[in-house]
Amino acid sequence: MPSFNVHIKWGRETYKDIECNTDEDPTLFKAQIFALTGVHPNRQKLMVKGKTLGDASNSWSTFPVSVGMTVLLMGTKDEDIQATPLETVKFLEDMNESELATALELPVGLANLGNTCYMNATVQCLKTVPPLVESLRKFNGANSLSSDSAQSITAALRDLYNTMDKKLSFPPVLLLQAVHTALPRFAERGEHDVWVQQDANECWTEIIRMLQQKLPAQEQVKYNSVIDQYFGGKLAVEWKNNESSEEPPTSTIENFLQLSCFIATETRYIQAGLMNKLEEIVTKNSATLDRNAEYTKKARIDRLPAYLTIQMVRFFYKQQGVNAKILKDVKFPLVFDAFDLCTTRLQQRLEPMRKKFKELDDAEAEGKTKVPAKKDKKESEKEVKKNTIPYWFQDGNLPNFHNQMSLLQ
Description:
It is built from eleven helices and 15 strands. The protein is an alpha+beta fold. A five-stranded mixed beta sheet has the order 2-1-5-3-4, covered by helices on one side. β1 (3-10) and β2 (13-21) form a beta hairpin. The chain is elongated, with a radius of gyration of 37 Å.
């Protein structure tokens, strides 16, 4: 009896009275099952009493199937099989540094060439300033260890950033050579002929000074350098003689590229440390008394830069020239409010914008407590344009809120 009916059980499905002809090749029977279930013959596994049906014509002899028996089908349809990914899956532990940086959207790291972390940290901090990076891209100076130290460092930093933008991990050898040539004290070696650890703030100050000489400002009428434009600020200083009531107070203007936070015993917050430096007692020559006298120096910010650099002064000299480090914790916010450090004139200019920011913050806080209504794309674009307000004065002053971009230690 070569032709008879059987039942096919596939998962939860059962197909009854399926014709099975043992005179034909098993591929014909599998084709019938493919038409019913969608399981390709190559993925079909037909079983009865522990025996499996093959593709050869003589496979029926070893396959114990008979009338009315249930044949177990195992296999998966094409649409149920997960498509092969276009790209091979690669796990994090199998990635190199460049692939990790791309996958995790991390900035490219710099190799430590031997106590050069101070320079690497400075390079990473400066890279967070888009106007500076853009100005470096436009710099056309050649990268050579020439007598022009500023050009060598500027060109080396430009080439290093170009390499980092390609997500390539690259040892900053050329920049280190340029720094050592221009600033020999950074090339000092200690025990085992290893470079001595250096202060990151000193490296920051020197590199900024070099860039200041070579990178022109975007608005050259107002500023000499892109450093002055985005990092430079102005202090309005009032001098009052504490030893002579006859000498009238005098006023001067001082430029700065960074503010210093002096850490005293009672200093717990960065604002307090900055205020201690802005108000201090200074000894200098008095024209009225014709001798040195004590003056009260009171300084306030009269121009806020776009990127405000604050130095935490943690080192001081004890007796006999011993350099000591202050380990006291000083708290600082992620959004720094410099309003109290500004002159009255600048505060009056900043006040209207502060109110705007407060209104936006209040509206945002109120919006988080409500269920947002659905808006189409055009309404969303109009709202974005409506909430965009100017934040830059023509003289370069910014509203007094500064987001923390990087931390240099």
